[in-house]
Specification:
The chain is an alpha/beta fold. The protein has 11 helices and 8 strands. It folds into 2 domains: 124 residues, no CATH class; 245 residues, no CATH class.
Length: 410
């Protein structure tokens, strides 16, 4: 093979041949193909004519090989070079694909970020704090929906819900009174006369029935200490539904109790149960001072009453019912002080009720002494009792309406 000669314009110095690297061999093959003008593939053969090179490394390599082996070594060099070229081409293609992919990935990420930013800007323009939607809402309903809240505020006088609330409250009060209170009171009064053995339990039963009919809440706290450490004064606590104020009932079956002790007991019970009014209920009227009698109020927040005569076995539960309503009316009246309530009218009614209570007490006393006419007298007594509770109910209704108005105004 005469394709490789030592015709180099530069002087070549003889030295030991070096081991050819794959990339150098590939360069050899590439140079042969690129530099030769007569490299052809014919009938499955590669034919190269008149190839010459002055590459020092190539010339020195073949110079050290015996002439008879040079053709074989040249073929091997071609083969190794072709393999190296193929490997290089594959690597180049991989690099090209990777570069293209990275370029596409970068473009995609850039486009996605821009799209997300554009969407965020558009969202803020429409739904942001200063967006068009918020502007429309503020124009229609006021800032933060103030107009809508104002229109639908059930506590704002003149709003539809406020008017509906008042109507429903009045209807409920009216229905409760018309459909159940009178019948329940008659049922309470018609029960078997209470016996004194379980005086405290019997009083609580009457109070519970009355509270349930009136829509109030009463609790038996005889075994619970109150605000005052270790103090259990105030056996039962009534919470009035119309104003959420409290009335405490202290029940006692004692031989005697002085006026000062009554006031001391009630003052302590009121403080202990954080109540607005206190009622002391004793079993026997003879245990109270004669100046007090059956039913007596101290100031405007304390009341004492008795439920039986010394020579009677029956307890007069209507007295307890009247005491309940009396205390309730007093608390509602106190809660409305300063409002447009006719104080003189209320005091006049209270005086009238006091007189009727005295009349009731007198009649009750006569019932024990005049057996022959006891039925008629008792009927009269019950009529008077009904009148008293009726007066108290009327006052309660009036005070509830005023209380509702005051709540709405506040």
């Amino acid at each position: 093979m005469s394709a490789i000669t030592k015709n180099s314009k530069k002087k070549i110095q003889t030295k030991q041949p070096t081991k050819s690297k794959p990339r150098q061999v590939a360069n050899l093959v590439r140079s042969i193909i690129e530099d030769s003008m007569s490299a052809k593939v014919t009938n499955g053969k590669l034919v190269i004519h008149n190839y010459e090179t002055n590459d020092n490394e190539i010339v020195e390599y073949f110079e050290g090989i015996r002439p008879e082996l040079r053709e074989d070594r040249c073929t091997r060099a071609f083969r190794m070079g072709v393999m190296a070229l193929k490997s290089t081409e594959v690597t180049d293609r991989i690099d090209y694909v990777e570069k293209k992919f990275n370029s596409l990935d970068y473009k995609f990420k850039t486009a996605l970020e821009k799209t997300v930013q554009d969407l965020e800007v558009q969202y803020d323009d429409v739904y942001g704090d200063k967006g068009k939607f918020q502007e429309i809402m503020n124009n229609q309903f006021g800032e933060d929906g103030k107009l809508l809240k104002k229109v639908n505020n059930p506590n704002r006088e003149g709003s539809p819900l406020h008017d509906l609330k008042l109507e429903l409250r009045e209807e409920i009060i009216s229905l409760r009174e018309d459909m159940g209170i009178q019948e329940k009171e008659e049922e309470i009064k018609s029960k078997t006369p209470l016996k004194g053995a379980d005086f405290e339990e019997d009083c609580y039963e009457i109070l519970s029935d009355t509270a349930r009919v009136s829509g109030d809440l009463i609790e038996d706290v005889t075994k619970q200490a109150g605000k005052i450490k270790g103090c259990k004064k105030g056996d039962h606590v009534l919470t009035i539904s119309d104003c959420n104020k409290k009335v405490t009932f202290e029940i006692k079956d004692v031989a005697s109790i002085s006026s000062n002790k009554i006031q001391e007991t009630l003052t302590q019970a009121i403080e202990n149960r954080e109540a607005a009014y206190g009622v002391l209920v004793v079993k026997n009227v003879d245990s109270l001072p004669k100046s007090i009698g059956w039913f007596h109020e101290f100031g405007n927040n304390m009341l004492v009453c008795a439920l039986e005569l010394s020579d009677e076995e029956a307890l007069h539960d209507e007295i307890l019912l009247i005491a309940y309503k009396w205390a309730r009316t007093r608390v509602l009246s106190q809660n409305l002080q300063g409002s447009q309530v006719d104080a003189e009218a209320i005091e006049a009614r209270i005086d009238s009720i006091k007189q009727k209570i005295d009349q009731l007490r007198s009649i009750k006393s006569q019932c024990t002494n005049i057996e022959g006419s006891s039925k008629k007298i008792r009927e009269t007594a019950e009529t008077v009792a009904n009148e008293i509770t009726g007066e108290l109910d009327t006052m309660n209704r009036s005070l509830r309406v005023e209380e509702s108005k005051n709540i709405e105004v506040s």
